[in-house]
Specification:
34% helix, Ser/Thr_kinase_AS, two-stranded antiparallel ribbon, alpha+beta, 347 residues, Phosphorylase Kinase, domain 1, 12 strands, Transferase(Phosphotransferase), domain 1
């Protein structure tokens, strides 16, 4: 495993001690491949310990994959891997930095939603930092496709800064190919429909998933809700329908000030348009995550660089972006011209 020579090896006994024998009282949550516990190492560090499920016949593969990928990466918006047990250990354990403030999903529509802590500025910052992390992944060599971008995998610290985690499904992506053919994996509600139907994974698959995250941030609705009507169980479909029908008022979380604050209304409308582009069924019509990040930066600045964005990023399609306050849901019907579907290889 390239890079794993720098990964610290913990003993099973040390991690069992750190988590009080994997006490249920220490559980932070369950992931797709294991249970995560809060622990305290002998050197005093507070950590999160992922204990892979014993009955998962792919656990060794997921373990090796996550160690291999995370040992290559270092970014302020990615969860840091502190170490692991050996791959031959009877228990496969991964040790990460502890991120104290729960997940974005917890705060949007989970057990912490009652706190109403995610104001619009914080949500926009979460979107930008998540896009920044994904842009880094897509730009490293070889590029990394996360393949499970969702609000449950976006952790928050006490200042609401982002740490993207859970790389069990991630894939190293050759920079000289347009896609990788692989069996579709991911979380329902977030999986790129092209990937699901054609088994073709690209960097635009992460962009689609990020589009769902953007809609969650503006709506506070979960990605999948069986109580919604059949064609709107998936939040992506619900959002596309409402934006096309100019019903953004019904989609946006009313607590954000969409009705009462013109500036917030304008910014949320811009983010909704960006999400619409990310969720296009034709992946060639989706922007790259780098383009998404640039657009979010302009939105955060108040859209005053709208003309610059139009000239520099969207010169091939002058109908997509209108300047400043003239940006309306109608414009998302037009095509985002993207120069390539291959991963970006430079920051």
């Amino acid at each position: 495993m390239a890079g794993t020579q720098f990964t610290h090896i913990f003993s099973y006994e040390e991690l069992k001690e750190a988590t009080n024998g994997f006490s249920p009282l220490k559980e932070l949550g369950d992931g797709g491949f294991g249970t995560v516990y809060k622990g305290k190492l002998r050197d005093g560090r507070i950590v999160a310990v992922k204990r892979l499920y014993q009955n998962n016949n792919r656990r060794a593969e997921q373990f090796m994959n996550e160690v291999d990928i995370l040992s290559r990466l270092q970014h302020p918006n990615l969860v840091s891997l502190y170490g692991c047990t050996t791959s031959t250990s009877s228990e496969l354990l991964l040790v990460y930095e502890y991120v104290s403030n729960g997940t974005v999903a917890d705060h949007l529509h989970g057990p912490r939603s009652y706190e109403n802590a995610l104001t619009w500025p914080i949500r926009l910052s979460i979107a930008m930092e998540t896009a920044n992390a994904l842009a880094y992944l897509h730009a490293v060599e070889p590029p990394v496709i996360h393949r499970d971008v969702k609000t449950n995998n976006i952790l928050l610290d006490n200042e609401f800064h982002v740490k993207v985690g859970d790389f069990g499904l991630s894939r190293l992506f050759p920079s000289d190919v347009s896609h990788v053919s692989t069996f579709p994996m991911g979380t329902p509600g977030y999986v790129d429909p092209v990937y699901h139907e054609c088994y073709q994974l690209t960097d635009r698959s992460d962009v689609y998933s990020f589009g769902v995250v953007l809609v969650e941030l503006i709506s506070s609705k979960p990605a999948v809700d069986l109580s919604r009507t059949r064609d709107e169980i998936n939040l992506a479909n619900l959002a596309l329908n409402m934006i096309q029908r100019s019903e953004l008022d019904e989609l946006v979380d009313p607590a954000l000030g969409f009705q009462s604050n013109w500036e917030i209304r304008r910014m949320i409308s811009l983010v909704a348009e960006l999400a619409f582009q990310c969720l296009q069924s034709d992946r060639d019509m989706r922007p790259s995550i780098k383009e998404v990040l640039e657009a979010l930066k302009i939105i955060e600045k108040g859209g005053h660089d709208g003309d610059k964005l139009e000239k520099e990023k969207l010169s091939k399609d002058s109908h997509l972006v209108q300047s400043g306050a003239n940006f309306s849901p109608v414009t998302v019907m037009n095509r985002w011209e993207s120069s390539s579907t291959t991963p970006n290889t430079s920051l």
